[in-house]
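hey so i finally got around to running the thing on that chain from the lab meeting. sorry it took forever, my laptop kept dying and i had to restart like 3 times. anyway pasting the input first so we r on the same page abt which one it is
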Amino acid sequence: MAVTKLHVKKDDLVMIVAGKDKGKSGKVLRVLPEKERVLVESINLIKRHTRPSQSNSEGGIIEKEAPIALSNVQLLCPGCNKPARTGLKVLEDGSKVRFCKKCNEIVNN
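ok and heres what got predicted. didnt touch it at all, straight out
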């Protein structure tokens, strides 16, 4: 399976557009391009039962984020503060930047 170019990067602010957490927003912690999924801060929380170990002497039930499908997240535009699709633009100096398709605001890379 070929890995494609993704519309979100680590530390982007995204909004969930489908699923149980629809309407919530958070920061992207990790991008998994081979599985086309992302980990978003405090979104899609699961409970994990763990045994006591050297790193976690207590054990018990731990809440952590589970990956969410890339198609269910949209980048939050810093200009219009709404979830928007992004495009790719080449500037005069030859650098590629992402831009909001709603307000044409350049999204930081």
